[in-house]
Amino acid sequence: MQGLRFSKYKGKSQSTFDRLLEVFKELLLHSSGDVDEAIDWLRALDQEYELSTKDYTIDDFIEDLKKKGFLREEIDDGGGSGLAMTAKTERAIRHRALEQVFGKLKKSQTGNHQTKHAGPGDENSSDHRPYQFGDSLEQIDMPQSLKNAYANNGIDDLRMSQDDLVVNEQFYKAQLSTVLMIDISHSMILYGEDRITPAKRVALALAEFIKTRYPKDTLDIIVFGNDAWQIELEEVPYLKVGPYHTNTVAGLDLAMDLLRKKKNSNKQIFMITDGKPSCLHEPDGSYYKNSFGLDDYIVGKCYNRAAACRRAGIPITTFMIAQDPYLQQFVEHFTQANKGKAFYTGLNGLGDFIFQDYENNRKRRIN
């Protein structure tokens, strides 16, 4: 599995359960939430790298996972039983993805991104300014105003005038709505490269990042293959690549539909893909597909959607997980049509690129 490195453990800072849990969460992401497969991989790794101990075996670990609420018994359609992830495990995977991708960031106060425009906003800052006619009484910082009155008049003649009053400055806390598009076409696992797992990890990390750092922002996640559909955050760990072509137009249409429903004016689309657009859903219900080269008909539709997003004020940032020159040329033309941005990235740097662009887009869109 790409991205994993193992060696015999020599440290003592974590319990055996905690160490195994970190590995197990990663395996669950690679197995798309298949607990039995993840356990099989864990046993194989344990045989080679001695992850467990004589006093704490993999079987002990599995029992603790059930006791601690990470796994539950599930009855399948055939009447058999098996193990499945719980909501607690899904949250733990999101948190691990956040630490992997954004671990170098320090937490900040909720909704801390300010616009340049001061005035009646929705949250206080630590800055003060003199009272002005029209300021509400709720904005007055009474302790600081009393200090000013004492400094100006002394304790023997403590009177408060308008000149002593200061108010908490307020700022608008702008909201940004993001749609993240994830390509689940078959090419995401071609040539022995696992490209879907890094895409899932970034989606989970971005969602957790927005929820904890910018809780007023929104993130919708959609996947696209032959068609496009919206998924819930809880479904991301279970995503699998299908026998699909790449219907980029369907993904963009759905993304625009979702963003039209958002009342705020700051909107953007992130698109993670590694393949060329190769499919369209025609008005008569049929599919037009072409897997050979770049089809002018399909590509033209993509350019049209990119321009439509530009006219609607929706920038598209494309993260191309491929190095093919002819695909890069398509992305360049697509980006020009949208006036957006594009990154050509390998699998390891995807998270950092997404983070940088989210922060930069946020600053650019709301300032």
Automatic annotation (TrEMBL):
Q: Which InterPro entries would you find in this protein's record?
A: VWF_A, vWFA_dom_sf
The protein's matches in Pfam families, at most eight in alphabetical order, are given as: VWA_2
Coiled coil regions in record: none
Q: Where is the stretch described as Disordered?
A: 104-132
**CDD domains in the record, alphabetically?**
vWFA (cd00198)
Residue stretches making up the VWFA domain: 178-276
What this protein is called in its record is: VWA domain-containing protein
